[in-house]
Write the structure tokens for this entry.
Amino acid sequence: MRYGQAVSASGTAVLIADTSAWIDYLRATGSPQGRRLRQAISEHEVVVVDPILLEVMAGARRDAVARTQRLLEAQHLEATFPKLDWLDAATIYRELRWRGVTIRSQTDALIAAVAIRLELPVLHHDREYGQIANHSDLQIVET
């Protein structure tokens, strides 16, 4: 196994669930992304990277902070690599802009850079990842 790659206890492939998928899951919207995240959590297939931890915890409801933090910390936690992931994110953002594609969130570019490095697909409910995937090696989870 290469450093940085995460697998579940059963050896199955894992995914990075973007903040948008976590929101669907936590709000129980019944979306395909929320249902797929529920399945991935039960199968120990979820990777949480630093920016997602920040975004989900920053938006946690007052009465659910501790529960949300325990849930996130129970997943595979992966840190961003200083400089490497950040520069790759800047490259993704810049190259998309040069192609006339503007993504709203530089944080999504950072999450995409980590996903590409780890060779993991991103589960999302967000238009940015489709645009990034169209112009990079990013893989996304089909729902």
User: Anything to note?
Assistant: The chain is about 50% helix and 10% strand. Residues 57 and 81 are 21 Å apart (CA to CA). Residues 1-5 have pLDDT under 50 and may be disordered. The longest strand covers residues 46-49.
